[in-house]
Every structure is written in C-alpha cells, then in structure tokens.
Design goal:
The structure is a homodimer.
Chain A (H helix, E strand, L loop, with lengths): L3 H10 L10 E7 L6 E7 L4 E3 L2 E3 L4 E4 L23 H6 L3 E3 L6 H8 L15 E3 L7 H6 L5 H11 L27 H10 L2 E2 L14 E2 L5 E6 L8 H14 L3 E4 L6 H10 L5 E3 L1 H8 L9 H14 L3 E4 L21 H13 L4 H4 L1 H11 L2 E4 L14 H19 L4 E5 L8 H11 L5 E4 L11 H15 L3 E3 L12 H22 L5 H12 L3 H7 L3 H11 L20 H14 L5 H7 L4 H8 L7
Parallel strand pairs in A: 10-11, 10-17, 11-12, 12-13, 13-14, 14-15, 15-16, 16-17
Antiparallel strand pairs in A: 1-2, 2-5, 3-4, 6-7, 8-9
Helix pairs in contact in A: 5-6, 7-8, 7-17, 9-10, 10-13, 14-15, 15-16, 16-17, 18-19, 19-20
C-alpha cells in the first residue's frame, strides 16, 4: 500500500468509481449554517420538442451516496483520506475530548508492530471520546430537544426529491402499513423520530468524514452493501475499492465483514475513505484474537475489540446479544441449523461453557461504551433462518423477543438501536416478521438480509432476495442488506457488488413508491416521460445504471443517430405504439375529448377530421 | 435454411440447448394408456456422510419444459420437426378432418411463392379442422364430462413434485387468497377446472407435437417467454434457437411476436419444433399485410390471418377486443399513453374510422374459428399502463371490465380464455389488479406482463418486474410473461432470454411456495439440505441454473477438491457457521434437548460433557 506501484494501482482501481455520472453535476444544498452542505446529484434533461417549439424539462435531483468521489472539484487521495466535514460539529458540542493515545490494548499493539508499517494507513487521527459522564449519542441530544447539524443534514437530504419538483402527473397514495411519513421532512421531525427510537443516525464521533444519513421507516428505505476479506481471498486494496464502488451505485452504508488477515488495518483504510456509515461485527475480530476457538472468547477480549473499533470510527456494531443459551437447542431440528456466523460462535460459546451469552450478561457494559463514541447497535439475529424450511420458527422469534427487551435497555442509556432480521422467508411469511419486529422492538428500525423467497436459485440470490426485500421494505423495514449473485457460492467481485447494489436500489425504491414516500415517483415519471418522447439520452441518464442502459441500447442500434430516432429498437421505424399514441393524444386534445363525458358527447362526426389531420403520425416532431 | 451450411449452423446453435442437465435423466411417467408418457427430469443426489455411515438422498423430480431436446435417446432434426405425440388422441376423437389444403388465402399464397422455397419448412403437414358443427376445444370436452388424454397428461405433470417426496421438514401452509389447491391433482380435478373456465390447456389440434400443460391459479404458476424478429434485426434461425433455449431454462409457453419479414415461415419452423404451446398476436401480421397502415385493416384480412395461423398450429391468440372506441381518449392524459402495440393499432383504427373495434364487433365470429381448432383466447390488455404513473386508471379498468364480458361470450362457445394484464404497477396497487380481474372475468386465468414495480432501472427490468410478478403470482395470477434485461432498450439476445426465464422461474416458484402449492418446497428443502451438508455438486445440480452456480463457485475455489470440502469460500476452512451448527445438533441429540421443555429440564450439568465430546467440530464426517 505504501509503495509507489501499489498506490498507483489503487488509484487506477478507483478511476471508474470517480467518474461523474453522465449529464450530472454534484450540487450542495446549504443548511442553516454554511458548513452544512448536503450533496445531491442533479441530472440535466434535454427539452421536449413539440409542434409549438421547445418545452424545457427541469433537472432532477437524486439522493447521492457516492461521496466526494464523483465531485470533479475534489482531489481524491486515498492515502490522506476524506475531509473531516463533521469535525467542527463534534468539537463545538464540547462534550468530547481527544485522547492522548488508543485505549485498546490490541489497537496499541497493532500500532507499534513495525511489521505492519507497510500496511498501515499513514495518518491515523488521535481518537476522540466522550468526556467523563457525558453521553454523545444523537439519541441523547434528541431527547434533550437539541437539533444537531447531523439531524439538519439528514432532513435536507431526505427532502431532495421534492426540490425542483415538476408535477408531471398525479401522485398515487401509498399503502404504508401504519407508518406516518410527512409531506415535508423537517429537522424537528428527524429529532422526534430519533428521540422516539424510530430512527437512527449512525455517526461515530471518530468518523468525522461521514455525510450523515438516517435509517427509519418514515424515511427513504436504505440499503447496505457488505464487503470484507476472508481467509481465502481478497486484499485491502480490493476492499477499499469495493466500498467506493458500492457507494457509487447507491449503497447507503457499508458493512466490513472481514474475517481474514489484517482486519484492523483494512478497517482504518475503509473508514478514512468512507463518506457513508461503516458497520462491523466485532465478534469476528475477537474470534481471530483467540485463534478461531469460540470457547476461548471472553468478555475482556470482546470489550477491548469494541473500544478498538469504536476509536477507529465504526458507526454501528452488529452484536448477537439475543442468542440465549435456552434458544440454541431449538435450532437442532432445523434443516439448516444456525447460519449466522456470529450466532453460531455465540451458540458454541454458550453450550461449551453452559453459561448465558456474555453479550447478553454484559449488555449494559456494552451500552456504556456505545454512548461514549455514539456507536449504534445493530442487534444481530444470530438465529435467523438459513432455509425456507426454518422461517419464523421458535428459535427465530424467541431471539427477536429478547432483542426487544435489549432495545429498551439500550434506550434507557440513550443508545441508538436497529434490529437485524432474516434471512430465508417465503413471501407469505414475510409480513409476520415485520409485524412481530414492530411489536416486540417497539418500532426500532428493522434491518433485514433480503429475505430470500426461495432456495432453488444459487447464482441468482440477488433476485430471490430482492423480491423479499422489496416487500419487507414496503411493510416498514428501514434498511435492506444486499445479497449478491455470489451468495452461498463465493466472494463477490466488483461486478457482483454492483449487481447486488442495483438490485437493492430497485427493491428500496419500489418500496418507497409503495409506501407513498413524497416525491419518490418523480424520477420514475421523468424517466417515463423521456421514454415516451424518445429522449434516449435522458432515459439512460435517469436510470440507476446509465452505463448498462446505454450499452444495451447500443447492442441493437449502435449509431448515434438512433439515440435521437423517434422509434425504438423493439419494433423498428414503421411500427411503433408510442407514435400511434401521440396521434390519440393530439386527437383528444383537438376535440376536447379528455374525459368520459366529453368523449360521449363529442364522439359523433369527428372521425373524418381525424383522418384528415391525423394521417401523418407523430406530427409533434 | 435448406442449404447444408445453414442447417449445420442451426444444429450447432442448438447444441447447448440439447445437453442433458448434470446428474439428471429424462424419465417418463405413464398414464392410463401407454401413449400418455409425461416427461420429467430426475436429479440424482449423492448420499449424506454421517458418523454412522451413509444415508441415501432420494432423487428429486422436477417439472420439465425442455421437450425432447434434453433426451439423449431422441435424434433431433429441426428440418423434420418433433414427433406428433398427440396425433392419435386427436384422430381417435373422430370430430376433426384433415383438409385437402389450406383454408387461408394468404397461407396458400405463401405456399405457392417459389421465392420462399429456401425459407420454407420442408414438411408442412396438411391442416386439420373440426368437422362441420363440431367443437374441438378442451373446454367443450370438459363440459361434457370427458377426460381427454391432454387432461390426464397435465394432471400427472402437475403432481410430479410429490413423487419420491421425502419429508425433510414441515410444510408451511401458504396463503392462497381464496384459491383451493388440492393435495393431489387428479385428471377429474383438471376437467372440472377447465369446464369451470378457471384453467386452460392451450392445445391446437394442428400442434400435435405439444406436450400439454395447464394454466390456472390452482396449478403451478407458469411463465411465458417472448421471442420474435422485428424489422430491425433477427433471423429465423435465431428465433428457433431462442425458443429451444427459453424452454430449456423453463419457459412454459412461447409467444412469437415477430413483426418483421417472413413471419409466416418463421412461425412454421417454431411450431414444428416446439413441445410447448405457441402464442401469437395475429394483428401484427395482419398489419404487415396492409403495409403498416392501421386504418387499412379489415375484418376480412384479420379473419384470414386467424385461420392461416390456426392451421399452422398456434395454440393461443392475443386479441385486443377490449380496446373500445370510448376508452381510447381516456389515455390522452396519460404519461405514457398506449404502450401495447396491438392496443395502439386498434386505437388508431377506431379513431380513424370512428367505428367500434372490429375485434369486438366480430367477437362471436372469432369464437367460431377458435373452437374449430381449439385455439385459446388470450384477451389482450391493449390499454395496460406503460408507466407507474398510469397504473390502475380508468382506461385500464374499463378495458378489463369489457374483457370480462367477452370472457362470458367465449365461454358460451366453450372456447378457452385467459386474460392479459399489466404492465407497470407499483407494489401497493398490484393486488387490486388481481382482485378486479377475478371479479370481472369470473376467475378466468390471469396472464400478466411483470408488472414492473418501478420505472427507474432500464437495463434491469427483469428485476423490477420479477418483484411484481412474484407478488401477483402469489395473489393468484396463473401465468407470468417474462421481461428481459433488454426491455425498453433493444431486442433480447440469448443471454437476455436466459436471464429473463430464470428470473421468472424464481418469481413463479416463490409464488408457488407462498400459495402453499403441495410439494413445491421439496426442491428448496433438498437444496438447503445439500448446502448444509456441503454436498456442493448436489447444490449446483438442484439449482435452476447449475452452470452458473458451478462457475460462480469455481471463481473463488476452482479446485475439484473444494467441491467436497466441508467449508465454503465465504469464510474459509476454520471459520464456518455450518460446522458449528453441527456441534449444536449433535449436542442436542445426545442430550435429548430438542424441545423447549427438554432444554429447561436438562440444561444443568451437561456443559462439561459438551466440551469433552464437542471439541472436535463437525465430527459427523
């Protein structure tokens, strides 16, 4: 990583992720103070050609998770990391202090190990921690009535779809299963939702590079992309590249699930270069520290791992505190047992010691750490089903009820919480998951893996799970953890990461539409209008993946002239339903026949007129 | 097509589609007479290694749409076509006669055109037609209480998933929205459903090569793949190849949507080589006959086209009889107008003549033709929405109500009917489509295109629509028309056809699971069991796409030894949740701790025992 050759490779890997999107520019919406600059992507559209001349199409603003990478005004230097945009916000609250050194013993060991000099990020910042007796969580501020810059940032960010709103057509009211999304997201609404525990802003004080985002069911549905090396494969460079690549395509958060070598160093590189929240599963690293022997795990080793990672800036921790001793044997009759790695580690620990899970018995100790750095809980579903046959069983729902109890304990400490969910669940059993979660966890945000709706398609599990993800998002799930085509088969590469992210953006957006999220339909409508008007470039540019849309079009009609053609490649120039529709529209307009009544009144004697004026099809252009 | 070089190319193109699936063999279940031979694919599994030795895993039978192409005992010769397995069944009913020549004027013209000799299928069979006054539809037989060989064939076919059933785990009761799927599908149940109009067997008497299948919501959810050339691109060879390719991967029917040159000849090649029902949209060809000028269409031209195609053996016709004059102007205010090609052709015709749609006014004349050949109606949704913004509007539902009226007229003639549906519909508006269709069309099978649940992802519309398809399948839709990644952008190639088919098999199967279709979960359970037991080869072979599953695995762990490894590439050899689960299982078994009560009773004092016996993980192997 420190040799010239290595860093050039790294820079090259990032080249693609740093290209601005076509016809797009990065814009910033300023908040109540000049250092609140909320990034968005503005897509410029071409005008509509009409018989009366030209009609402008307003640009469309879209939510932008790509960070400074797509900003041509920013010089990216992965070896320096991103700018710490939250630094002043954190400092001015005057409730934290910069520590002289690392608190974690393991962190110090890694820092002092000269053998790691070549791997280590060169500009490790001194860690920051809450002053004695202070709680620095967003939930704590919210409950005191304080609107933080982070809350204002996410409020602006959630509203963007209504900026430049162009009322092309009616909005369909959604079906929101009891949620209550307001027409305008205010910072005060954000504060209330955080205080209530119905939403979280994962934002460690040691991750000042973060562009804040919110997870909760009264906001846009979010997605998470997993990256991480394993003992078998993958390097630091690859993991950093996967992170920038996944956020380019829309990943709202990233989980680093590394289980192989140099996890500590990999994580530092990722966080310093990430504008999105980073989540981890600390038990993975704790297990590495005891050479993979689950029985040898201790609370002390785990505690040191939490602090090590909290001081690096991890924004949320998956912690499997709900895997209780008494639930473990309930999985014995399952078809696929325990498939969560964290769940199986803790199950093994519990059984071999015949003791209750130390992540449960030390839960309040963990809360004490979380609130010092504002790390959010992602309470792990260690007993989630790993096969359709195991969905919604007693082991799963038993654990869920325990996660509900723990949620209330975390909230007592003003620590932010979300709840992880399955897994493998057939469609008709998905809603029960959401309903049970809302009930037992008192509306804390739900964060599910898929769920996969069938087990028969390895190689396509982004699709088997995208189906379930769209549904549970609609029912109220706040964040969807992506699944790539390689699930169950291998480690995802760059193409798999992109396929997973795009699939999950589709699921999340389909859910936003179904929930009736204000403004969500604007991009659909703009794209459909572009399609109807044969504005091919606009259609590509409004797509979640402009590159693929364009290349698919070019396979059939590669010439540039085809992109301004008033026909599409499906039917050819003479035979086009959209052309014919234009006739209908012109006819109805000329004859005032736009409602059923007008039609019935005016239908007689206008036929000849149509033949005369309408014989030239698509005469708008 | 007739030169040696051409046919060699064709044969090569078909090579892939003719490979048997790995570890699979074609088996035939014999019905009540020796000429009822229902094909299925049997997947052989390897045994489970246990500490007690070896435990056999029964082979799994799966529904097989691939026809004789995957049967190594059949010599495929595309220039001869497939064997006419239904020939005797049709003949022995003694209600049809072989005609001396073609009835259709156009058909005769094409036959006599020497310029087409090179393109023409060489062995065109003489057409068969009902004897005067006879009705040869499956519905007609069913209503007289006759169980035809076709009905018995599909009854056996629908049951296959319960053959060799191995009760691995509990079956989850589905949520079937009012449908009533019996535990065993009998030929008599098939007859009742056909007689009631709740299911159809599309099976033209001029398509004796057909392996009969059934479409109805009390049966397995089916999928359709579209193929077809256009004025821009594609050849006869490509279309025949796409058909065999799509049916290899699971397409239950094929629609030939050709709009370009030599449609008549292409269709003959496709039908003669197809073991699945073929559907068409006759108005496309009728329009070609009037040089693309919709106003010049006449009932006479259309009528001749129906007969031409019926005598070739088309099994179902999409006919847009519901596009009424008064509905057309209702589309003028839409964002995307009329996107159905057939719908826009008829809309243009109606407006320019100021007359009611001739497909509506001549509906009973059309029924007279349908019943002479047993062609099924697929009543077209010419006014389906082409954008989320246009979903469930008055134009769409007005047409649907008219399709309901027409259904009852067709049933009066004992003609089989299914109803086409949208299109572009956000998730929360999908169920209304299904409910309205059931209500107005009196439970005639619904056959939908997707629906696409968002418009923002051109290039990924197999996924945007696969989400909607799974849902509407669950709600009761009988057949799902696939959408490929090229939708809206270009003509699908071979890879796109496969991606579309596999995605829709996922949606259809997810729907079967959610409906609680008896036995549907068997394949999921077998695959999950193989996964849990690290039987990699079985996991690949049970997948919808063994080739892709295997190649994805091999990207990370290419060695053959990795396919027998008791770990997967996600976590590496030391760190594996499935290994740990095995410990839990062994522990629970040894200590009789498989229920909550047993656990609470026996939880004390067994900890040390576990440490002693359980320290070697995965000691089953």
């Amino acid at each position: 990583m420190t040799t010239q050759a290595d860093s050039t490779d790294l820079a090259e890997n990032h080249y693609d992720a740093q290209q601005p999107f076509p016809n797009s520019r990065k814009v910033f919406i300023e908040g109540s103070r000049p250092d609140i600059q909320v990034p968005m992507r503005e897509i410029t559209l071409s005008p509509t050609q009409t018989s009366d001349g030209v009609e402008e199409n307003a640009p469309i603003l879209v939510y932008d998770t790509s960070g400074p990478y797509t900003d041509p005004n920013v010089e990216i230097d992965l070896e320096q990391g991103l700018q710490p945009i939250r630094e002043a916000w954190i400092a001015e609250r005057n409730d934290t202090e910069e520590l002289a050194g690392l608190t974690s013993e393991y962190g110090r060991e890694r820092r002092d190990n000269e053998g790691l000099d070549d791997l280590r990020f060169a500009h490790v910042r001194k860690p920051r921690c809450a002053k004695s007796g202070k709680n620095v969580s967003q939930m704590h501020y919210a409950r005191q009535g304080i609107v933080t810059p982070e809350m204002e940032f996410v409020a602006i960010r959630e509203n963007q779809r209504r900026e430049h709103l162009r009322e092309i057509t009616k909005q369909h009211p959604g079906q929101s299963w009891g949620a209550a999304i307001p027409q305008v997201i205010t910072a005060e609404f954000v504060r209330e939702e955080i205080a209530r525990g119905r939403a979280i802003i994962p934002a460690n004080i040691n991750h000042p590079e973060l562009e804040p985002m919110i997870i909760g069911r009264n906001f846009l549905v979010k997605i998470n992309g997993n990256i991480g090396n394993s003992a078998v494969s993958s390097s630091i460079e690859e993991e950093v590249e996967k992170m920038t690549w996944a956020t380019r395509w829309g990943s709202d958060t990233i989980m680093d699930l590394s289980t192989g070598k140099n996890i500590h160093e990999t994580r530092e590189w990722i966080i310093r270069n990430s504008a999105v929240p980073i989540g981890t599963v600390p038990i993975y690293q704790a297990l590495e520290k005891v050479d993979g022997i689950a029985e040898n795990l201790t609370w002390e080793i785990f505690r040191d791992t939490l602090i090590e990672q909290a001081e690096q800036g991890v924004d949320y921790f998956t912690i499997h505190s709900g895997v209780l001793l008494r639930y473990v044997p309930l999985t014995a009759k399952r078809l696929a047992g325990i498939v969560s790695r964290g769940g199986s580690i803790m199950a093994k620990w519990c059984l071999s010691h015949h003791k209750e899970n130390f992540l449960y018995t030390h839960f309040e100790d963990i809360c004490e750490i979380m609130k010092k750095y504002d790390v959010s809980f992602s309470l792990g579903d260690g007993l989630r089903p790993g096969a359709i046959a195991d969905a919604n069983d007693e082991a799963q729902f038993g654990e869920l009820r325990t996660l509900g109890e723990l949620t209330k304990i975390a909230w007592k400490h003003d620590v932010q919480v979300m709840i992880e969910g399955p897994g493998h669940v057939p469609m008709h059993m998905i809603k029960e998951n959401m309903d049970e979660q809302l009930k037992h966890c008192d509306e804390a945000p739900f964060y599910t893996l898929g769920p996969l709706t069938t087990d028969i398609a390895p190689g396509y599990d982004h699709i088997t799970s995208g189906i379930g993800a769209a549904q549970i998002g609609w029912y109220g799930c706040a964040m969807l953890c992506y699944v790539t085509p390689k699930e169950h088969l291998g480690l995802p590469n760059r193409d798999d990461v992109k396929a997973g992210v795009i699939t999950y953006k589709i699921s999340a957006h389909a859910a936003d539409l179904a929930k009736g999220h204000p403004g969500a339909q604007q991009r659909d409508d703009a794209l459909s209008k572009a399609r109807f008007e044969f504005r091919w470039e606009d259609q590509f540019n409004l797509s979640l993946d402009p590159d693929t849309a364009r290349s698919f079009h070019d396979e059939t009609l590669p010439k540039d002239s085809a992109k301004v053609a008033h026909f599409c490649s499906m039917c050819g120039p003479k035979f086009c339903s959209m052309k014919i529709t234009q006739d209908v529209r012109d006819y109805a307009k000329e004859h005032g026949m736009e409602t059923r009544e007008a039609i019935e009144a005016g239908m007689n004697e206008q036929s000849e007129e149509f033949v005369r004026t309408g014989s030239e099809i698509y005469h708008k252009a």
